[in-house]
Amino acid sequence: MNMIPPNTSMDAAKKQFLKEFGESYGYPNAPKHIDDLRATEFERLDGNVYLDHAGATLYSELQMEAIFRDLTTTVYGNPHTQSSSSLTSSNIVEDARHQVLKICNASPKEYKCIFTSGATAALKLVGEAFPWSNESTFMYTIENHNSVLGIREYALNKGAAALAIDFEETAQSDTFGSTKSSIKVSQHPIPKRSEARVSNRDPTGHTYNLFAFPTESNFSGMRFNLDLIDMIKEDSERILGGSQHSRGSWMVLLDAAKGCSTEPPDLSKHKADFIVISFYKLFGYPTGLGALIVGNEAAKLLKKTYFSGGTVAASIADIDFVKRREGVEESFEDGTLSFLNIASIRHGFNILNTLTTSAISRHTSSLARYTKNMLLALRHANGVEVCKIYGLHSLKAVYSGVGPVISFNLKRSDGSWVGHREVEKLASLSGIHLRTGCFCNPGACAKYLGLSHLDLISNIEAGHVCWDDYDILNGKPTGAVRVSFGYMSTFEDAWKFIDFVVRSFVLLPTNSINLNPLRSTESSHHLTSIVVYPIKSCSGFRVDTWPLSSTGRELIVI
Ligand SMILES: *Cc1c(COP(=O)(O)O)cnc(C)c1O
Predict the structure, then answer these.
(1) What are the C-alpha distances in Å from 399 to residues 2, 183, 214, 508?
(2) Which residues contact 463 (CB under 8 A, 6 or more apart)?
(3) Same domain, yes or no, for 296 and 384?
(4) Among 53, 338, 384, 523, which has the minimal tally of Cβ within 10 Å of its Cβ?
(5) Ligand 1 centroid from CA 12, angstroms
(6) Distance 84 CA to ligand 1 centre (A)
(7) Is there a single domain that holds both residue 39 and residue 145?
(8) Domain CATH number, residue 378
(9) Residue 540 Cα, ligand 1 centroid: separation in angstroms?
């Protein structure tokens, strides 16, 4: 197993990989072999190694041909118009809604599908229309996307409380001296806003709370156990230790934007109230289209403020009169639906249905597990570990597994961190596409990188914002490197990435040359500075030391 490149050829490594993961790798029941699928439907990758499927997965070239053929041979009119071309559009939209419900095993009798401009727009809609009152709580796991955290603004502005939670394992000794572990919920309340425009309670006097968590974290890949839905709905008092937040009814919002591509939530078993998804995360195209799947009962509670063409039955321009449309989709879909994009999604669903999401999950997991094992085994010549992976040790009661995502940081042989921007720049020179930073998930970032509020604030004060080059501040990483796999990822992608890490960052015994200026005083040449120019025509950065790889191909030291 510990055959680590570059001592191993790719072919030999693949044999080893298939021995261990052959049962999970590829799609034996699909018409095409994975290598065939990759060669014929993703020709444009042409040697590139694309490992940012958590950012956006890739559309297949056949999928795009099918969409093009569809749009160029069908007359699609505005679904709001009453004509045969609009009927075509309406039918296509209704079919698309069914496909969306089906992927989450949601019965059309219990759930509706509202199209939105993305997962973010779906989350915003829930935040805007949720029946907040001054007794409500918006509770969310620390590990959440910024687009979920933003719901907090609606809650706080309406006088509700916000509560971030995380889970810890605690060991307890019983009277017989044996220790049992149990899960503790750590609570991080966010104070109410004094200037909030307090919303009165629902006319029925009922308090509604909202609990939001991702099905899969886009940072660590951890999949949250969906039993949390029932646990919080039925037992919030015990879980929250009888705190003031446990009053009233709990509604649950699942952010399935990341998780849906490999493990869609099964809504026949786990009755969440709101579920958001995003189509470019599922099959690459179209962008700017997402959906809110909403339970019928939950939909009745939502109260939208804005009305528009699309959601209005009648309004009068110069008096305060509006009659809204009835029906769940009609009350929430503002304007004209993105009907051509909606018409395109069935060509993406065709792929998922052919391969099946369970096979995609197995396939991508095999690549992620292999890559993780390889990274964990890497050592510098002096024995120092090369890679720290985040989210490895998880609590079984809270997490049900892990998706095909690996977030990590690399260390030099002296134990200092390699900045994530440095990794990103070198990766891009090797044609490897990966993502670095906090991935819009500040809670996970702070938790895994061990950044305190003080660290975060001092980093912000030092001028660090998302996307900048301050990747290490006060000796600590400000973000991480993330690789993630998609249904068309192959063993070769994983291997090329590991090979890149070894070549660029692992100090093997014969790899190092000493660049210490003090050592070179005997020769007539003095090394006075090292400036690395990772990208042609862009400014370089000055470093004190720089490990060279055995090929030295990526670096020009001037
Ligand atoms: C991508 C992503 C989002 C945002 O989705 P958009 O469709 O781009 O708005 C939200 N949450 C998670 C977990 C994501 O991965």
Answers:
(1) 28, 12, 11, 37
(2) 470
(3) no
(4) 523
(5) 38
(6) 35
(7) no
(8) 3.90.1150.10
(9) 33
Same domain for 197 and 293?
A: yes
For ligand 1, atom 9, the nearest C-alpha belongs to 120
Q: Which residues are known catalytic residues?
A: 440
Residue 480 lies in a domain: yes
Kind of pairing between the strands at 222-224 and 399-402? antiparallel
258, 262, 279, 438: residue to mutate for ligand 1 pocket, most atoms within 8 A of CB: 258
**316 inside domain:** no
Residue 394 one-letter amino acid: S
Measured by CA distance, the residue closest to atom 15 of ligand 1 is 258
Structure confidence by residue, pLDDT tens digits, 145-196: 999 999 999 999 999 999 999 988 777 666 666 766 677 889 999 988 887 7
Q: pLDDT tens for residues 478-532?
A: 999 999 999 999 999 999 999 999 999 999 876 444 444 333 334 456 677 787 7
Pocket test for ligand 1, best of 143, 280, 281, 283 (most atoms within 8 A of CB): 281
Last residue of a domain, one of 457, 478, 505: 505
Specify whether 369 is located in the same domain as 465: yes
Are 310 and 80 in contact, with CB atoms under 8 Å apart? yes
Which residue from 100, 120, 143 has its CB within 8 A of the most atoms of ligand 1, so it is best to mutate? 120
Name 472's bridge partners: 477
**DSSP-assigned letter for residue 520:** G
What's the pLDDT score for residue 200? 63
On whether residue 92 sits in a domain, the answer given is no
Give the residues surrounding ligand 1 with Cβ less than 6 Å away. Answer: 118-120, 145, 147, 214, 218, 255, 257-258, 278, 281, 290
Residue 218 lies in a domain: yes
Residues of the chain with pLDDT under 50: 1-3, 511-523, 552-558
Residue among 407, 416, 310 nearest 368 (CA): 407
**Are residues 221 and 272 located together in one domain of the fold?**
yes
Residue 67 Cα to ligand 1 middle (Å): 24
The mean predicted confidence, pLDDT, of the chain is 89
Let me know whether 287 and 408 are in one domain. Answer: no
d(CA 364, CA 404): 6
Which ligand 1 atom is nearest residue 214's CA?
Answer: 13
In angstroms, the CA 96 to CA 196 distance is: 40
Question: Can you tell me which atom of ligand 1 is nearest the CA of 121?
Answer: 9
Residue type, 257: A
Output the pLDDT for position 552: 47
Domain that holds residue 246: 99-302
User: CATH no. for residue 122?
Assistant: 3.40.640.10
Domain count, the chain: 2
Tokens of 147: 């687009």
- My answer on whether 124 and 248 are in the same domain is yes
Distance (angstroms) between ligand 1 centre and the Cα of 120 equals 6
Contact (Cβ atoms closer than 8 angstroms) between residue 192 and residue 135: no
Q: Tell which of 489, 505, 521 closes a domain.
A: 505
